[in-house]
From TrEMBL:
GO terms for molecular function: DNA binding. Transmembrane segments: none annotated. Coiled coil: none annotated. Residues 44-98 form the HTH cro/C1-type domain. This is Helix-turn-helix domain-containing protein. Pfam families: HTH_3. It comes from the Archaea.
Length: 253
């Protein structure tokens, strides 16, 4: 995940629900592929390799000897039964979850939908200036006001709380739509440090960043403001009443 140090606490139920959907998706995908294959051992080995788990580690998690697991993967035994497949897949999942669930998110087709992360995304038919966008979202300048006349070609509004759960480095690219010369707005922000940390460490930068959540500039994290200055990125605090008003103001362009 690209926002590992974000301050707001995420609902435990949200995390559990998200991972439950991913686990079901990946379990069904692997088990179905094994059951339908003419060479199930090769499929078992393929998924173990994809998860980057050694034969010894997986065998230990399953409670079998590495030689038994090796025999199955090399098709030296009869096709694995349902109980064995269940243990095999569950052990893959449990090991990956202990490591942070990286491959679960990578292989889940459910993970590919970011509808609950990207709240709005659009490209402008003609460029708008950073100053025009700041005014539209009732923005207070935190840094980079000297770039107010720079052109911006689109916007993306994201839910930063869901981004903590859902996004990894590969997904971050999807925030940019058709171009990176855009305004990226992080909503549900507490202080604003983590969004700017994410922007700083990712090689592709948005043209402008805004946050929504803090009630006043004094509540915004000073490090986030300093990072925006260093990156020469216009940084604005939107004081729109709510996220809907914020999105509505952008849809007028």
């Amino acid at each position: 995940m690209f926002l590992n140090n974000v301050q707001p606490v995420i609902s435990e139920n949200t995390v559990k629900s998200y991972y439950r959907d991913i686990v079901y998706d990946v379990v069904n995908r692997i088990a179905g592929e094994v059951i339908l294959s003419k060479h199930p051992g090769e499929v078992l080995k393929k998924w173990r390799m994809l998860f980057e788990i050694s034969q010894t580690e997986l065998a230990h998690a399953m409670g079998v000897s590495p030689s038994v697991l090796s025999d199955y993967e090399k098709n030296r035994r009869q096709s694995p039964g349902v109980a064995f497949i269940r243990r095999y897949v569950n052990s893959l999942i449990e090991i990956d979850l202990r490591r942070g669930g990286v491959y679960l998110r990578k292989f889940s087709t459910a993970h590919r939908s970011l509808d609950d992360v990207i709240l709005a995304i659009s490209e402008f038919t003609s460029p708008k200036t950073a100053g025009e966008l700041a005014e539209a979202i009732d923005g207070v300048w935190l840094a980079g006001e000297e770039y107010a006349n720079d052109p911006v070609y689109g916007y993306t509004v994201i839910d930063s709380l869901m981004a903590i759960v859902r996004l990894d480095a590969n997904d971050f690219l999807r925030l940019f739509g058709q171009n990176s010369m855009r305004l990226v707005i992080f909503t549900n922000v507490e202080r604003g440090r983590s969004p700017m940390i994410a922007v700083r460490i990712y090689p592709i930068k948005p043209k402008m960043v805004a946050i929504h959540g803090p009630k006043s500039p004094e509540e915004v994290d000073k490090l986030g403001i300093e990072l925006a200055r260093r990156e020469r990125i216009p940084y604005v605090l939107s004081q729109k009443r709510n996220v809907k008003n914020l999105i509505d103001s952008l849809s007028m362009f």
